[in-house]
Write a structure and sequence with these properties.
4-stranded antiparallel beta sheet
């Protein structure tokens, strides 16, 4: 597979750009490549998009994230397609009803809220908008809550509003290891506000992280079965599902014999789970996630080979998993590959006219 690298454009959102801008202050634009995000027919409404690098970066804390004060940024090293990255997420500072400021690092609620918003943007051309040439979405909190509730994620209005604020205030920094020229620094949502601030019933809007738009423009976004992804039980099964979708993106011939090998330590380091005192604890958690993928016909099965220490033959240090994709996942992958080719051809045709 080709390496996934950040180019040297050094994407950064300035402090001034992070200040809340009114909806009308953003320039509405269209980009032919961005239409890839919207090329979904009514019969394909259960699909959404997963974003290369951005979705697999361990920016979310498994669970509900950390809430406290004097919270340190979350820092992680991870790799993708042979490239090592440094990641940092600075906490959002939000004032509570008691008047005290607290720090919030994005967790699973924020992950689910963002996935639901991208689903709304992908499946509705009127709601998916391009502001300052970046992908955004227009929505109501009630609509967002209903979308999440449909997938068995019942959050209160207050929880959803707080999650939106956390995404708009937490700063994500990613760069290739040791290369500050490749740095990308921006909030998870670069803008959050009301379309008509003077209207109490106004719709809201967000602009997604620049890496989301960059992936769409580069053609590295992939279709994912949104219904299955949102039904999975927890952060790790969803991360593994997105990992599989990205892994099979270049497969010209995908079938149930295309096994995928991955080590436990690779999953732990790159997903952001753990660390665990004993590898056996983490291995058990990963196996539980694989069983969840089997339940939703993403995997047909898997094989586990335990790796022991060279010094102590009874000490578990790692495990190699051999994953067998389910026929439904193979079907979705073939559809995604076909759609990607058709969309690219359509865009090339539009460029030529």
């Amino acid at each position: 597979m080709e390496n996934t690298q950040i180019d040297n454009s050094n994407i950064s959102v300035s402090k001034e750009e992070m200040e809340k801008k009114k909806y009308e202050d953003h320039e509405q634009s269209r980009d032919i490549q961005l239409t890839l995000f919207h090329l979904l027919e009514d019969s394909h409404q259960h699909y959404s998009n997963t974003i290369e690098l951005y979705d697999l970066a361990p920016k979310y804390l498994p669970g509900r994230g950390y809430r406290g004060d004097q919270t340190k940024p979350r820092e992680k090293l991870f790799s993708q397609n042979g490239v090592e990255y440094e990641l940092a997420v600075t906490p959002a500072k939000i004032k509570g009803k008691d008047g005290k400021w607290k720090d919030y690092l994005p967790g699973e609620i924020e992950e689910l809220v963002e996935d639901a918003l991208r689903k709304i943007a992908a499946n509705n051309k009127q709601k998916g908008v391009y502001l300052d040439n970046e992908l955004g979405v227009i929505f109501t909190v009630g609509e967002l809550r209903a979308t999440l509730k449909k997938q068995k994620h019942a959050f209160t209005y207050a929880e959803i509003r707080k999650a939106l604020e956390v995404c708009a205030s937490s700063i994500l920094i990613i760069q290739e290891k040791g290369d500050t020229r490749s740095r990308v620094k921006a909030p998870l949502f670069t803008s959050l506000g009301d379309v008509e601030p003077s209207n109490p019933n106004s719709k809201s809007f967000v602009i997604f992280n620049p890496l989301v738009t960059k992936s769409i423009k580069d053609g590295t976004n992939r279709l994912i079965n949104h219904d299955k992804s949102m039904s999975l039980n927890g952060y790790l099964p969803r991360w593994l599902y997105k990992k599989l979708c990205q892994y099979y993106k270049q497969a010209s011939r995908v079938d149930a014999r295309c096994f995928y090998n991955i080590k436990y330590t690779t999953i732990e380091n790159n997903s952001g789970i753990g660390p665990y005192k004993r590898p056996s604890q983490g291995i058990a958690k990963v196996e539980k996630s694989f069983e969840n993928l089997i339940k939703y016909n993403i995997l047909d099965g898997y094989k586990k080979d335990i790796i022991y220490s060279a010094q102590r033959s009874n000490k578990v240090v790692d495990a190699l998993f051999i994953l067998k994709p389910h026929s439904e996942f193979v079907r979705d992958t073939k559809f995604s590959n076909k759609r990607q080719r058709q969309a690219t051809e359509a865009i090339e045709h539009m460029k030529g006219n």
